[in-house]
Design a protein that fits this description.
Blueprint: H1 11-53, H2 56-64, H3 72-79, E1 83-88, H4 93-104, E2 112-115, E3 135-143, E4 147-148, H5 153-161, E5 170-177, H6 186-197, E6 201-202, E7 207-210, H7 215-234, E8 248-252, E9 285-294, E10 303-309, E11 322-325, H8 331-340, E12 348-353, E13 368-369, H9 370-377, H10 386-393, H11 399-408, H12 413-425, H13 430-436, H14 444-450, E14 457-460, E15 471-477, E16 480-482, E17 488-490, H15 492-498, E18 510-516, E19 530-533, H16 540-554, E20 562-568, H17 578-586, E21 592-597, H18 607-613, H19 615-623, E22 628-634, H20 635-653, H21 658-670, E23 674-679
Parallel strand pairs: 1-2, 1-3, 3-5, 5-6, 5-7, 19-20, 19-22, 20-21, 22-23
Antiparallel strand pairs: 3-4, 8-12, 9-10, 9-18, 10-15, 11-14, 11-18, 12-13, 16-17
Helix pairs in contact: 10-11, 11-12, 18-20, 20-21
Length: 680
């Protein structure tokens, strides 16, 4: 080692060594360079290939992208519109109101268009001032516990994050809500407040419609004051009497390929014959009914438990979610409408939008038959709204009947009172009106244009996917009642489901469904106690909750106290899932089962009375155990009474004043520890 480092070495040896080292160095350099070049070429080759592939992606997306890329501003300019009416709609009512407002505009020399916020970029609102005499109206329904409707979710998210300058925007808002719910008209109130915060100018006060009262009257009252405010703001006047303007034109198909005709599908033609996931509102899954049994042992009502097979659908659900069911109208009602109007219901037709620029080409899937439209697409059982009566009035040949219809559609006090008593309170549907007004015989195509869409019905899922991954359970009660006119009215979906008999094959047992996600969720930690309050069919989601807690316990998880407060009328008549609940209690999953039989004694006993009876235990679970509270069922009375009971318990044991107790419960709601799944 020392010799190698010695400077007095033999020079010839040194030169030979040096040459050898240089040869070795060059050969190593060559290898290195070749490797480097090969590596770079390989990297470039693959990198170049990726770069070539990238531009293809936007092309693919643009093919399937919704109409979102078209600006509503450009559309308004192109079609000469100056009023846009956006709707946030879950059941179709807000959309209906938006269409009525956009149609009104022509009476004032203005032109309106109804628009789905899901189809447009709402940041364009800042540009609306580019259009003369422009106005944005928002018909916003509130869904669930103060949430936006599905189609308004993106708009809501944008409003929350936006820092846009909307100072040139003029707007008005009509909210659709229900006073029995905790967050009455939350969406309408939020949109109204937020638009003002962003600098927009409100030209008419916020309207608050209440579906628990008379939503139609609330809308008419707001509307009749809204238009004069618009006229005053823009300096325009009404051009004359309200006139009936058809939105769609009828095309009858005499020679049509039946494979191109809709037979009840919600979106894609033949989607029921060729099912493809994912399944949603526009592409429901046809689930087979595998079980349909009556739950109650007596009484006049029919309470039922259904099981729907979702095998091979890729549908996933969680306990607490809702299943949406698309029902069909009773064929006898459909036939009677056809007979009264003297129509061949099997005529194949299309209703085509006269506005070629509209995104909505048809009011329902076309071409189809009148029978299919009246069976699967149109609501023929609910009392029609006043705009339908107004449009139909022109077809009444008897002057008295025509005057009556126009009066009910007017904004006069006696007209509103007549509509309320003769239509709403008497629960007269379109068939009953046609029967009671013999001179009223409208063309069936105009009637189909006017009637609202038949909506999906939502049911709280009564099973856990941990236990039943391929099955969705429903618990429901058939709706049937006699009206003031002596007619027997039946609930569309529940009576249709009642007749779904489990079978090996055949469409008689198929139900179009999809799952809608919910915020009604079990606590993340299984050890957290739960207090469930659900009388009647309100027990549905709790059957799923209890099944899941039992499954968690079987997996060796520590499961907290599981307490149920259930109520029914009579122990021997309508005690739902009695055997299942007894088994869960015996197994120790259901740690406490409290049942109120409201009519088995002189004084009525409800779930809130049992909560008061066990108030110390309830407070201990909530205060010390950090329990989660769940309430499911009737919003109008039960949910409110239960909430008031919690105020009392919190006030008494938490040493709080009434306002403090209310605030405490509201904070539980904010934290997700007090959840509601209620209906009115």
């Amino acid at each position: 080692l020392t010799a190698m480092g010695d400077p007095s070495m033999d020079p010839t040896i040194s030169a030979a060594d040096s040459t050898a080292q240089q040869d070795s160095l060059f050969s190593m350099m060559d290898v290195f360079l070749i490797s480097l070049i090969t590596g770079l070429f390989t990297y470039w080759f693959f990198f170049r290939k990726k770069k070539e592939e990238v531009p293809d992606l936007p092309k693919m997306q643009s093919v399937v992208a919704p109409v979102r890329d078209s600006s509503f501003i450009e559309k308004m300019k192109k079609t000469g519109r100056n009023i846009v009416v956006f709707y946030g709609s879950q059941t179709g009512t807000a959309e209906e109101f938006a269409n009525r407002l956009s149609k009104d505009a022509h009476r004032y020399g203005l032109r309106g268009m109804a628009a789905d916020p899901e189809e447009y970029d709402l940041s364009d609102l800042s540009r609306l001032s580019e259009i003369d005499k422009s106005l944005a109206v928002f018909c916003m329904a509130t869904y669930g516990e103060g949430d936006p409707t599905d189609n308004a979710q993106d708009f809501y998210d944008w409003l929350q994050e936006a820092d846009a300058d909307l100072s040139g925007l003029r707007f008005a808002v009509f909210g659709l809500g229900n006073k029995t719910y905790e967050h009455f008209n939350a969406m309408g109130k939020y949109v109204d407040k937020r638009l003002e915060e962003l600098g927009a100018q409100r030209i008419f006060e916020l309207g608050l419609g209440d579906d628990d009262g008379n939503l139609e009257e609330d809308f008419i009252t707001w509307r009749e004051q809204f238009w004069p405010a618009v006229c005053e703001h823009f300096g325009v006047e009404a051009t004359g009497e309200e006139s009936s303007i058809r939105q769609y034109e009828l095309v009858v198909h005499t020679d049509v390929n039946m494979n191109k005709v809709y037979t009840g599908e919600m979106g894609r033609l033949k989607s029921y014959e060729n099912q493809k996931p994912p399944f949603d509102a526009k592409n429901p899954f046809l689930a087979q009914v595998t079980e349909n049994r009556k739950l109650n042992e007596g009484g006049e009502r029919h309470l039922m438990h259904l099981e729907l097979d979702i095998s091979n659908s890729k549908i996933r659900y969680e306990s607490g979610d809702h299943v949406a069911v698309y029902p069909a109208n009773d064929s006898s009602l459909v036939n009677q409408i056809g007979e009264i109007l003297g129509t061949d219901l099997d005529t194949i037709m299309s209703l085509n939008n006269l506005d070629e620029e509209s995104n909505k080409k048809h009011p329902f899937p076309c071409p189809t038959s009148y029978r299919t439209a009246l069976t699967y697409y149109l609501d023929i059982t609910n009392p029609p709204r006043t705009n339908v009566l107004y449009e139909l009035a022109q077809y009444a040949t008897d002057s008295g009947e025509q005057e009556r219809l126009r009066k009910m559609a007017s904004s006069a006090a006696d007209g509103k009172a007549l509509y309320l008593s003769w239509v709403v309170e008497a629960r007269r549907n379109i068939l009953a009106i046609l029967q009671d007004m013999p001179s009223l015989r409208p063309p069936i195509d105009h009637l189909c244009e006017l009637l609202p869409r038949l909506q999906a019905r939502y049911y709280s899922i009564a099973s856990s996917s941990k236990v039943h991954p391929n099955s969705i359970h429903i618990c429901a009660v058939t709706v049937e009642y006699e009206t003031k006119t002596g007619r027997l009215n039946k609930g569309v979906a529940t009576n249709w489901l009642k007749n779904k008999v489990p079978a090996q094959n055949g469409s008689s047992s198929l139900v179009p469904v999809y799952v809608r996600k919910s915020q009604f969720r079990l606590p993340f930690k299984p050890s957290t106690p739960v207090i469930m309050i659900g009388p009647g069919t309100g027990i549905a989601p709790f059957m799923g909750f209890i099944q899941e807690r039992a499954w968690l316990k079987q997996q060796g998880k520590e499961v907290g106290e599981t307490v149920l407060y259930y109520g029914c009328r009579h122990e021997r008549e309508d005690y739902l899932y009695r055997e299942e609940l007894a088994r869960f209690q015996k197994e120790g999953v259901l740690t406490q089962l409290n049942v109120a039989f409201s009519r088995d004694q002189a004084e009525k006993v409800y779930v809130q009375h049992l909560l008061k009876k066990n108030k110390e235990h309830v407070w201990k679970l909530v205060n010390e155990g950090m329990a989660h509270i769940y309430v499911c069922g009737d919003a109008r009375n039960m949910a409110r009474d239960v909430q008031n009971t919690f105020y009392e318990i919190v006030s008494e044991f938490g040493n709080m004043s009434q306002p403090q107790a209310v605030d405490y419960v509201k904070k539980l709601m904010t934290k997700g520890r007090y959840s509601l799944d209620v209906w009115s």
